[in-house]
Amino acid sequence: MISKEDYMEIKAQHDRGVYKKDIAKRLGVHPRTVTRALVWGGPPSGKRPRARDS
C-alpha cells in the first residue's frame, strides 16, 4: 500500500510526463500500483471491507 506522500509524488511526476514504469522504479513499487493510484485519484484508505458473515 502506498502512503499519501507517495501518491503526491506519483501525481507530480505523472504531471511532468514521467513514464509510469520509471515512477514505479523510483518508488520501489509495481507499475500497476502507480496506474491504480492514478485511476483512483488518491491513496487507498487503508481500511479493508468487513468480511461478510456466513
| Number of helical regions | 3
* Radius of gyration over C-alpha positions, nearest whole angstrom: 13 Å
Shape: elongated
Q: What is the ordering of alpha helices and beta strands?
A: HHH
What gap, in angstroms, lies between the N and C termini?
A: 28 Å
Low confidence ranges: none
Biggest β-sheet strands, sense, barrel: none
Class from secondary-structure proportions: mainly alpha
Helix content: 55-70%
Number of strands: 0
Residue-averaged pLDDT: 87
**Strand residue percentage:** under 5%
Write a structural description.
The protein is mainly alpha-helical. The protein contains three helices and no strands. It has helices at residues 4-15, 20-27, 31-40. Helix 1 packs antiparallel against helix 2 and helix 2 (20-27) crosses helix 3. The longest helix is centred in the N-terminal third of the chain and has 12 residues, at 4-15. The radius of gyration is 13 Å and the shape is elongated. 7% of the residues are buried. The mean pLDDT is 87.
Which tags fit this structure?
54 residues
Topology diagram in text:
Elements: H1 4-15, H2 20-27, H3 31-40
Care to give the gist of this entry?
The chain has 54 residues and is mostly helical. The chain has helices at 4-15, 20-27, 31-40. The model has no long low-confidence stretch (mean pLDDT 87).
